[in-house]
Amino acid sequence: MKIKAKELSLLLKGEILGDPEVYVSHPGKIEDAGDGAISFLADMKYESFLYSSNASVVLVPNDFVPAQSHKSTLIKVDDVRASLASLLKTFGGEKEDRPMVKEGQVFVHEESTVGEGSYIGPFSSIAKGAHLGGNCTLYANVYIGENVKIGHQVVLHPGVKIYKNCVIGNNVIIHANAVIGSDGFGYSKSNEGSYQKIDQIGNVIIGNDVEIGANACIDRAVMGSTVIGDGVKLDNLVQVAHNVIIDDHTAIAAQAGIAGSTKIGKCVMIGGQAGISGHINISDGVQIQAQSGISKNLKQNSKWYGTPAIEYTNYLKSYAVYKNLPNMAKKLRDIEEQLKQLNDKT
Fold first, then answer.
1. I need a labelling partner for 256 at 20 to 30 A (CA). Which of 16, 201, 226, 305 fits?
2. How far apart are CA 346 and CA 341, in angstroms?
């Protein structure tokens, strides 16, 4: 695909600075983009790359003023990242090739239903009572369990497993090898120390416009439902335990783990490798930094960092002291030695 800078500026409703006739054919990172590439500058810590970049076009914020000369044509836009997302969809919009499925390569139970326009890839299986909506794409080796309900325009990448009775909304994307509806980690411990499995008889309900990363696991509820709200984004390797409720438009980065029966509000942001204990409430708008450990209820729009986590600004102040502890300890030892010498003289 080739497009002129002036056509891009119209598409993005941006202001063009430079040559409007220059062509772009592909996206590229600003630090190593070459001729014909379109790149972006959203974080000013990368501004220095602009002045040496060979990108033909660079998206910049509306208020950006270059400090030096540069080769690239600039397009000023209201929201660089939103404009970039739109462009990447334009450049990468071609559908992935879907292999022809030969007879006998898929299993669709006669008591299940598949909506119009849906594709089922090689060696995939749809169990009894399952319902698949229209225009869905199931790639190879996908398993849909009994009585699963899946909406329209859902994409399940290779190896996704959806256990029985789970419900998935419309416009959902689930990446390779994610597991939805596996048993929660529920056991009772005997007096002798052995563990007895507690049957997990609930399900998982996933809303609309959700995206779930590769190898993520969402456990079914003991009773009732584990719930993932509309617009939630889960990164790779996220673990969501039984009876957790995640409200709309929350985003959780890779390797985070959420223990059972915790409730997470709307528009929460959770960094990678964060650990969240069970049976707590995290209110709307909370931000949790990567690798933080959360063990208590968190109030609305608060920010947290550390293990155990404390409020973000307090953590930064505490860390400023903590990293100086070796020097402080040395100074204290020096003072103790000086006092000892004074005492010896007296």
1. 201
2. 9
